[in-house]
């Protein structure tokens, strides 16, 4: 049985905008195929559904920016910007490459606008850290709101990136997966 499941945006009522399927990321080029699907480990998918349930009564939607990231893609990112603290060394394995992590933000359901989080996704600076007080008060509140929703749904956070959440202790529990596990639904053009 495939350990990954496809995230169904319509069924969950969320948005999917995979940053690495476009040139709108720190590498300035697509890393995934344009029609790459969004996948998570079967253990993580119900927790994402719970996040959507918790956000909905607040007038919010979830916007997924990245989820399962094949090991081949992790190498592309690392070879471009080998920056420990923001990117997992692929020799150690990224929780993304296990399907055990998700990068996301919150969107106002009425306007469709992303909530201000103080920095953009994948800003590799101290401003991206949880609890950073050098960002405005609205952005701090929004980060705390996201953190509360995510931890209430059973996710662990990564202190350096306000957008990154993962299953608890994924290393040793989940294997690092290659793009080949997806069969015909491959994310990479290899």
UniProtKB/TrEMBL annotation:
The record marks 69 as: Transition state stabilizer. Keywords: Cell wall biogenesis/degradation, Dipeptidase, Hydrolase, Metal-binding, Metalloprotease, Protease, Zinc. InterPro entries: A_A_dipeptidase, Zn_M74/Hedgehog-like. GO terms for molecular function: D-Ala-D-Ala dipeptidase activity; metallopeptidase activity; zinc ion binding. It holds the Pfam family Peptidase_M15. Zn(2+) binds at residues 96, 103, 164. The keyword Hydrolase applies. It is an enzyme of class 3 (hydrolase). It catalyses: D-alanyl-D-alanine + H2O = 2 D-alanine. Binds 1 zinc ion per subunit. GO terms for biological process: cell wall organization; proteolysis. CDD domains: D-Ala-D-Ala_dipeptidase_Aad. Its cofactor is Zn(2+). NCBIfam families: PRK10178.1. Catalyzes hydrolysis of the D-alanyl-D-alanine dipeptide. Belongs to the peptidase M15D family. This is D-alanyl-D-alanine dipeptidase. It comes from Magnetospirillum moscoviense.
């Amino acid at each position: 049985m495939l350990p990954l499941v496809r995230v169904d945006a319509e069924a969950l009522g969320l948005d999917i905008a995979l940053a690495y399927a476009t040139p709108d990321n720190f590498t300035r080029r697509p890393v995934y195929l344009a029609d790459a699907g969004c996948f998570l480990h079967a253990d993580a998918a119900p927790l994402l559904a719970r996040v959507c349930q918790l956000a909905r009564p607040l007038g919010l939607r979830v916007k997924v920016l990245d989820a399962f990231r094949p090991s081949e893609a992790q190498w592309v990112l690392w070879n471009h910007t080998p920056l420990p603290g923001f990117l997992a060394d692929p020799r150690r394995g990224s929780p993304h490459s296990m399907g055990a992590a998700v990068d996301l933000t919150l969107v106002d359901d009425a306007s469709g606008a992303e909530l201000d989080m103080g920095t953009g996704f994948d800003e590799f600076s101290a401003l991206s850290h949880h609890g950073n007080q050098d960002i405005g008060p609205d952005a701090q509140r929004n980060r705390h709101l996201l953190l509360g929703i995510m931890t209430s749904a059973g996710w662990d956070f990564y202190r350096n990136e306000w957008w990154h959440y993962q299953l608890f202790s994924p290393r040793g529990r989940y294997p690092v997966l290659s793009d080949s596990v997806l069969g015909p639904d491959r994310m990479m053009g290899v």
